[in-house]
Amino acid sequence: MIVKALTENGVTANESVTPRPPAKRNSGFWKSVVQQKYLYLMSLPFVIWVFIFSYVPIWGWLMAFQNYKPVKSFSEQKWVGLDNFKELFQDERFYLVLRNTLAMSMLGLIFGFVVPILFAVMLNELRGNIFKRTVQTISYLPHFVSWVVVGGIVYKTLAIDGGIVNDLLLWMNVIDEPIQFMSKGKYFWGVLTAADIWKETGWNAIIYLAAITGIDKELYEAAKVDGAGRVKQMFNITLPGIRTTVMVLLIMNIGHLVGIGFEKQFQLQNNLVTDYSEVLDLYALKYGIQISRFSYGTAISMFTSVVSVILLFTANGLMKKFAKESIM
Amino acid sequence: MNRKSTKTIFTLLLASSMLIAGCGGNSNNAANNTTPNNTGNTPAATNSADDTALDTSPFTISFFGADASPNWNKMQDDVGKAITEKTGVTLEAEFDVGSGGGDQKIAMMAASGDVPDLIFAKGSLSKLVDAGLIVDMTELIDKHAPNLKKVYGENMNRLKYSLDDQAIYQIPTNMGVGQQSFDATGGFEIQHRVLKELGYPEVKTLADYEKVLKDYVALHPETDGQPTIPLTLNADDWKIMITVTNPAFIATGAPDDGEYYVDPETFEAKLHYKRPEEKEYFRWLNGMYAQGLLDKDTFVQKDDQYKAKVASGRVLGLISQEWEYSDGENALKAAGKDEYTYAHFPVTLSDEYKDHSFMQTGIDGYGLAITTAAKDPVRIIKWLDWMSSDEGQVLRTWGIEGKHYTVTDGKREVNPEVRDGLANDTANTQKETGIGQYLIFGARYGDGVKDPTGNYYTTSFPDQIVASYSAAEKESLAGYKATTWKDLFPKEDEFPVKETGALYNMPVPTDGKYQVTFSKTQDIIRKRIPEAILSKPADFDKVYDAFLAELDKAGAQEMEKEFTELVKKRVSLWTGKSL
Question: How far does the signal peptide extend, from start to end residue (chain B) (predicted)?
Answer without folding.
Answer: 1-21
